[in-house]
Amino acid sequence: MEIQKQAKRKVQKEFRQFKRKVIYRYSKTEIWEACSKIHFYSCMKEYFDLNEEIPKCYLNLVLAEPGFLEAAWKVYLKEETCRCDTWEEVSRLLDVMLTGWKLPAVG
């Protein structure tokens, strides 16, 4: 499935950029304070790396949203009910994002 590969690559690229930024630009104290964001990015990467049954609407969201992981992080911080420790929780977070996302017109 080509769209899944594209979404996976995009998430992996954003994750690598974030990882490099944390490792090379942050002090040890800043890295410690960023632990929850690191955990979040890792959970999102795992979801897209390992999940073979990602709904197409989630894949379209990833591909259409510039800076998808950062946008997801902001939703995660804003919405008290959002979690990311299981794939089910990631799916709920993506559902929340979809409700605020303008879906492209059909046809």
Report Rg. Answer: 14 Å
Shape from CA axes? globular
Poorly predicted regions are none
Largest sheet, in brief, is:
none
Mean model confidence by pLDDT: 90
Give the structural class: mainly alpha
**Strand share of the residues?**
under 5%
**SSE run:** HHHHHH
Q: How many beta-strand runs? A: 0
The percentage helix is over 70%
Number of helices: 6
Distance between the termini: 21 Å
Write up what this structure looks like.
With 107 residues, the chain is mainly α. Helix content is 75%, strand content 0%. It contains 6 helices and no strands. It has helices at 2-25, 28-33, 35-50, 56-64, 68-78, 87-100. The longest helix is centred in the N-terminal third of the chain and has 24 residues, at 2-25.
Question: What is the topology?
Answer:
Blueprint: H1 2-25, H2 28-33, H3 35-50, H4 56-64, H5 68-78, H6 87-100
Helix pairs in contact: 1-3, 1-4
Quick recap of the structure?
The chain has 107 residues and is mainly α. The chain has 6 helices and no strands. It is globular, with a radius of gyration of 14 Å.
Give short descriptive properties of this protein.
107 residues, mainly alpha, 6 helices
